[in-house]
Amino acid sequence: MTSLGKDLLDLESLSPEQITAILDTAEPLKAISLRAIKKVPTLRGETIVNLFFEASTRTRVSFEFAEKRMSADAVNVAIGNSSVSKGETLVDTARNLEAMKIDMVVIRHQASGAARFLAERIESNVINAGDGTHEHPTQGLLDLLTLRDRWGSLQGRRVCLCGDVLHSRVARSNIHGLRKMGAEVAVCGPRSLLPNGAEEALGVTVFDRIEAAIEWADALNILRLQLERMTAGYIPSLREYNRVFGVTRERLDRAPRDLLILHPGPMTRGVEIDSDVADGPHSLILDQVTNGVAVRMAVLYLLRGGRPDLATAGTAAGE
Amino acid sequence: MTTRPLLLTGGHLLDPSIGLDGTGDLLLVDGVVAAVGGSIAGPADAIRVDCSGRHVTPGFIDVHCHLREPGREDVETIATGARAAAAGGFTAVCAMPNTDPVTDNQAAVGFIRAQAAKADASRVYPIGAISVGMNGDRLSEMGEMVAAGAVAVSDDGRPVVSAQLMRTALEYARTFGIPVADHCEEPTLAHGGVMNEGIISARLGLKGIPSESEEIMVIRDILLARRTGGRVHLCHMSTWGSVELIRWGKERGIPVTAEVCPHHLTLTEDRVGQYDTNAKMNPPLRTQRDVDALVAALKDGTIDCVATDHAPHHNDEKNREFADAPNGIVGLETALSVLMTWLVAPGTITLSQLVEKMSCAPARVFGLAGGTLRRGAIADVTVLDAAAAWTVQGSDFRSKGRNSPWLGSTLRGRVDRCIVGGRQVHVRDGLA
Fold first, then answer.
1. What is the pTM of this model?
2. Exactly one of B290, B309, B380, B416 is catalytic; which is it?
């Protein structure tokens, strides 16, 4: 079996084989969520701490479902309730968690590199649930799984990430993951929201106009404007952004082919995406959410050594 | 305090200020160079030190370091900083004013001098703040600070944002003949940045500091020096663009000088690797193109001198998330060896050129005594072993700081002795 190593920190350092292993593992795990009793004993006895230094609903709940469906004991630590709010450093937090003999940590943190910082200092497996503006690997993986489900393979497909790429950890994970799996990747947005030198730094094509991106792409992954991370006025107004870069039904109707639409959420309807696109027939947004649980189950399973006999087994109740 | 005469025998005397490059003796008496070159008998009571196989140079001078006292004595004191300086071959260092409280008045300048005198190691020259509290609003009392012993003014650590204040500082400082040393950083461009803006920052998801943040201030300062005739000294240059602007200024006879740090001459942004906080500094490590331009500028004189920007931090402060860790590394004890390893050993510059950049030029730029072995000069001397190889270990540092990107590296060249005012203030362990 392809090993993931101790931690899942980013997609940049994973091989195509490792990514494939995660996606292949996730595929059958989807069925668990469809059962009457949504639980397998795979991670019974394992203790997992969900350490969220930033507000999150979607990712935290998705991880928690994944952990509970694998029978792990999960503890949620939110920043507001932790010693960190009293001035404790991340390294002290790590040492304390380690002293409690936990097995895994899922960390969401506002600082790029925080997950790696933690992973280098504790024995437990660490999963990056989003670090600053660096990566969000499980989101990238669930996006890959969602597209692979539709296309069978990502080879040669064209995916454009639209919007606030500069502040997006989702974008970096998608770019690395998609390129490793053979897709062509582009970004589209105002230059003020794209990393300077994105072409060279990330190996992507840059579109200045959303119309050109729509004409080129097979799928659009539409990113939220991260207004909370914007310390300078990167765009003049949300209204203008929607007029120039918003993905609208009218624009999609002019596309040469039907585009698949993804969005990592939370969506700001009427800004980066219009409701009739978000809820339209080509939207995969809810599939992404469903696949998120399966991907996270797969990552948890593989990082703990992967026991095939327990991965998809029924419970003692025999469902 | 009387000091016995010191006779250094058989060393390779190397002093570009007087064209000295050959074997000979050096006699230091009553704090000054009494005789230099040839075979010197020396007085009977002289302490004799055999320097054969060693280079004997004018003492190094660092025009830019942070000694943290007062305010952060837990990370460095003037005494530990002065001892670290001596261990690195620096007979004199200039201490930046971003202490707590800020060195912005004559009492604070006097305190630093008093602490340095007690430390009994390398000389410490205070640099006063340009503005009161380094707040960028109101000029500090430069005249009184100079009278108390300040040798320059700077708000280093913070740029002088107001062009008008910078202009006034340059005009006013002319009265006292001191340079105004500026931390060149346009703050609205650099805002929130933690490393060089480029490919690596884009990949790591770290906010970048563009080169233009430095260059905009470099050209502003040069133009203000042209307008005022005041001497501007540009701190820790890091970009090829800055080099071109300084060259432009010097070609026009504008009174501008500049320094470069060993880390900007040898390391690139790649060194950040996976968020290594010992590669986090301001200005940040840049690209190979910048490194190449800085080295060339040091060679051709566009950049005048080397300075360490020695910036000790507590391990706990560096051992954290990259974006939240403080900027800076220690440098006093590794500067010579780093530059010997990366620039002298490969033949990029000669040891004589390095001595010029670490000793003669800094003395000239800041108008300090030293930087020469000329007869009658103050007896500040460094003895070094150019052939030595050593591995950098934080536990060996005299500085309280351990934040060095060179920990574990094996470097060429090492300081054996540091002589201040004719007295040995540092002798490497194991030597008599």
1. 0.92
2. B309
Grade residue A190 by pLDDT with cuts at 50, 70 and 90. very high
| pLDDT at site A82 | 61
pLDDT band at A78 (very low <50, low <70, confident <90, very high): confident
Token code pair at residue A45: 């006895």
Distance of alpha carbon A292 from alpha carbon A298, whole angstroms: 10
Tokens for B198?
């480029």
Q: How far is A112 from chain B (nearest CA, A)?
A: 6
CB contact under 8 A, B207 and A131: no
What's the CA gap between A59 and A57, in Å, rounded? 6
Tokens at B318, concatenated: 């560096």
**B104 classed as catalytic:** no
- Mind telling me how many Å the CA of A85 is from chain B's nearest CA? 15
**Residue B178 gets which letter from DSSP?**
-
Q: What is the pLDDT of residues B116-140, one digit of tens each?
A: 999 999 999 999 999 999 999 999 9
CB contact residues (below 8 A), chain A span 294-313, against chain B? none
Separation CA A289–CA A292 (nearest Å): 5
- Model ipTM over 0.90: no
Which one of B207, B276, B321, B322 makes the best mutation probe of the A interface by having the most chain A beta carbons within 10 Å? B321
* Separation of alpha carbons B155 and A290, rounded Å: 55
**Identity of the residue numbered A12:** E
Residues of chain A numbered 76-115 and touching chain B (CB < 8 Å): 89-91, 109, 111-114
What are the chain A neighbours of B315 within 8 Å (beta carbons)?
Answer: none
Q: Average the pLDDT over B288-303 and give the result.
A: 98
Contact criterion met (CB below 8 Å) for A194 and A132: no
Distance of alpha carbon A295 from alpha carbon A287, whole angstroms: 12
Whether the predicted pLDDT of A178 surpasses 70:
yes
- Cβ–Cβ contact A256 with B under 8 A: no
3-class DSSP state for residue B40?
Answer: coil
Please, which pLDDT band fits residue B414 given cuts at 50, 70 and 90? very high
